[in-house]
Each structure stands twice: as structure tokens, then as C-alpha cells.
TrEMBL record:
Main subcellular localisation: secreted
SUPFAM superfamilies xrefs: Cupredoxins
Subunit structure: Dimer.
Localization: Secreted
Residue ranges occupied by any Plastocyanin-like domain in the UniProt entry: 12-124, 137-298, 396-527
Root EC class: oxidoreductase
Keyword line: Copper, Disulfide bond, Metal-binding, Oxidoreductase, Repeat, Secreted
GO cellular component: extracellular region
Catalysed reactions, as listed in the record: 4 L-ascorbate + O2 = 4 monodehydro-L-ascorbate radical + 2 H2O
Protein name per Swiss-Prot or TrEMBL: L-ascorbate oxidase
Coiled coil: none
Family: Belongs to the multicopper oxidase family.
Record's keyword annotation contains Disulfide bond: yes
Organism: Oryza meyeriana var. granulata
Amino acid sequence: AATRRHDWDIGYQFTSPDCVRKLAVTINGHTPGPTIRAVQGDTIVVAVKNSLLTENVAIHWHGIRQIGTPWADGTEGVTQCPILPGDTFTYTFVVDRPGTYMYHAHYGMQRSAGLNGMIVVEVPPGGQPEPFAYDKDHTVLLNDWWHKSTYEQAAGLASVPMVWVGEPQSLLINGRGRFVNCSSAPTTAASCNVSHPDCAPPVFAVVPGKTYRFRIASVTSLSALSFEIEGHEMTVVEADGHYVKPFVVKNLNIYSGETYSVLVTANQDPNRNYWLASNVVSRKPGTPTGTAILSYYGGRSSPRARPPTPPPAGPAWNDTAYRVRQSLATVAHPAHVVAPPVSSDRTILLLNTQNKIDGRIKWALNNVSFTLPHTPYLVAMKRGLLGAYDERPPPETYDHAGYDVYAVQKNPNATTSDGLYRLRFGSVVDVVLQNANMLGPNSSETHPWHLHGHDFWVLGYGAGRFDPAVHPATYNLKDPIMKNTVAVHPFGWTALRFRADNPGVWAFHCHIEAHFFMGMGVVFEEGVERVGELPPEIMGCGKTRGGH
Ligand code: C2O
Ligand code: CU
């Protein structure tokens, strides 16, 4: 196994990803950042220098479990103090499984400012072969993009009355998109330049007859997306680093924090180009289709030529059943089933609601809205720092017997807490995420929940209220897929199971940037006493100051 070293300088840079100039947070001047390519078993070393003059940084390696290196998870407030302006922090971790992953900032709403990218881990020579074959791969990083700064967005969310971020102005593919209406840009006309090289459409070139693996990741801040390649079928073969029993789709639903690989054979007329398209689903779209171009080598069309057809508009945004079908179709490849434990030691049932606290709109789990502590849990626990976080654990369940998930919650009040769930090391934990109606009538949206430090088995999905006496009997214990991010569909529930066997402290949250910022998350601790000596560089904030 190799050690792959990267030196990253994090800085501000004016970019024009959708032809509109905006200040972005970049890696070595680029957004998205470079794709990290490695082979299973490699050690990745990333020296991150924070050259932002007025802003902290932390970077999370999304989908990498950090076994033995919980301090490298990059979650500000959970596993480390932020990297201060001028400081360098070196992340060192092993990529222990092949697959498609991503990285992104995990400090405030910084991910949305452009600090994100992909991680591709290949099977080593002589390693266990993948259950499919292809000629070449392409990476596709999907994002949504606002013209307003992330600071304005965050300040708006925390204000009374709240200023909601609104729908994105553009959808990006590999960091490029096109704002359709330059003349109405909220900035001066000069800052919108349709011939800016930053917004030239990405071109994916294919050789007729060859099969391509498209590795697709979504780092969107808000949007659930439907992705398609015009005129081409996609066979889904990987989800979050796990092999899927192959199934064919025309549209791939992908939620923030998810990755998929699809196989596509270049078997269409090579003399024209085709659209790659991403469209918003699950929320009423206010954003035009994000596009890129698929072009055949040797065809008569020039690679950058606009396809002769309009970009595909995607499925109906509110067709939930269509998306649930994809969730249910995503099961483990028959030759790669990892059987889940047949029962669990503990069940945590989390009701997801929108609430009001001190006139502010928040998200809460069992009426507790999460706040990050100023001192990272990992340091506070290992060093026995007292009073760093609320020692009372948040509630394990809610009063579900009479709860109507289709109605507006009668009392929208909630409390805030930075308490966490402490899990017995090695125990098997079930989490059931219960979706519900929001503050307004007839509204419920999709929440993609992401677990750090683990993969979980996806045991089941259901519509309406989860009944602990009935629904566990319907779980798929035969061939559930393992994932690190899973959708909780509108008015529905999702059940997952994991083994609490990775010593550390791990965030579990909705991957919608604004939702986590508004409290939609929890934290798990397990086996923290087994964690080795912490690197002193993760300290320097809160109660960790002067602690050593
Ligand atoms: Cu990709 Cu805690 O996030
Ligand atoms: Cu959410």
C-alpha cells in the first residue's frame, strides 16, 4: 500500500461556476477540489493550510470510516477544533474499502462555499474483483449553487424573522453550470459573463461500443436531484462504496451525501451529442436543469456542440413513489451480502420535526434541536474536561402512540441541547428516522441522513407512522444494502442498523446544510476509552486550551 500526500492551500478565490462571479472557498485555487485517487489500503495524507484570513476550516472525508483515526474525521466541534487562519493541520487516514466517496468542509456552512471534491478508491491488483466490468470511469460531482454568500445564508437562518436560503440559482456538474438569466443577476451585469471559461460546459467523451463507469456524488446543500444521461440507460452497481444488485434506471435519484456508480454503454448514434442533466426533485423546483455534454469520439458532432434536443426535464418533482421504488430496489449484490445481526440491543426512534425556539425556526429530533459544543466531544471525553457539553442524553423515543405524522405538530416548541447518545461498545443499534409534517400544512420533505464512522444496513422504509410493534417484522435481513447516507422520504420512516464498533465520537445528521445548521443532527459516542493518544493539533479551542 502506498502513502499519497497532498498539500492543500485553502483560500478565497473569485470564480464563475455558473458564469456569475462569486467569492468561493477553494483548494489550491479550485472549486471543486482535486479528485483524490487511491488504492484500497493506501494511506492518505492531506496537509491542509488555512489561508483564509477571517475564517476557520475543517475537512470531512465523507464515507471513510476512520477506523483507528477518529481525530481525522474533520468534524468541527465533534472530533477537532477548527483549523485557525494561518495554521496547517495534517489529516492522515487509511482508505480501507474500494468505492466512491467525497470530501467537504465541515465547519458552519462552508461546504456550500465550494470546498468539496471526490475520493475514488480502486481495487488493488490481486484484490477481490468487483462484480462488474467496464472500460473506463468518469467522475460526476453534482452540486447546487447560490449567488448569495454562505455567510449571508447562515446569518439569515439564525435571524428573527428567519431569512430562508431559497432555491439555488444554478445546478452544477463538476463545478460548472449556467445561470440562465444574466440580466436579472443580483449583481452587476459585468459580473455575469457567459463566455467565462469557468462555466464552459463539461464534456464527457466516450468511445462507441465501450462501457463507462460514471461515479456520481452529490454534495448539494439543499437539493435532491434526479440525474440522467439523455438516450442512455444506466445500470446501478455501487452505492456509498457497496456493490448493488444491478438494476437499470433512466433517472437516478441522488440525495446530498450519497454516491453511486452506474454503468453506461456508448451504444447510441455517435453523430450527435447528448445531455447529462440534473433536475431538482422532492422540493418544488425553482432552478433550471443542470447540464453537461456527452460526446462520442469519431462522431460528426464537435465535442462542445449543443445537443439538438432540449435538456431533459426529469420526472415530476413530487413523485415520491418513484423515488421510494429506487430506495427499495437498492439491495446488496448477491455475491457481496454482508448479513446484518438478526436483532439489535437498542432502538433509538427519532421524530424529525420543524420547530420554533425563541422565535427562530429550527429542526429537532424528539423535540431537541442539536447545537455543536465549543469544545470537541472527542477531546472533552478523552481529557475528562468537565462541563464541556450537556451530560444528559437526548430522548430515545417520542410519544408515538397518538402522533399524527400527517398533521402540523400541536406544540411546535422545542429545546436545544449538545447532549449525545453513548453507545455500548460493540452493541448493535437500530435507528428509526420518522419523518413528519413540517410547520405548514401538507408539507414534508426528504432528509438524507448521514452517519460518520460507520456504514449501516438499510433495513426498511415505510409510509406514515412507524409502529415498533409491527414494522420490525417487515425488515429486510436477507440482503440489505450498506450505506452511509440514506433518504427519509416525505411522511415516511427509514430503519437502519449498525454495530457500534468504531471507537470515537461520530456525527449523524441530515446532510442538507441548512437543516444541520438548524439543529437536525445527533452525536454518538462508543468506546472512546479505547481511542489512542490524541494529536495535540486537534486542540486549541474551548476548554481544550491550556489543557496539556
Ligand atoms: Cu458529508 Cu457530516 O457530512
Ligand atoms: Cu433535512
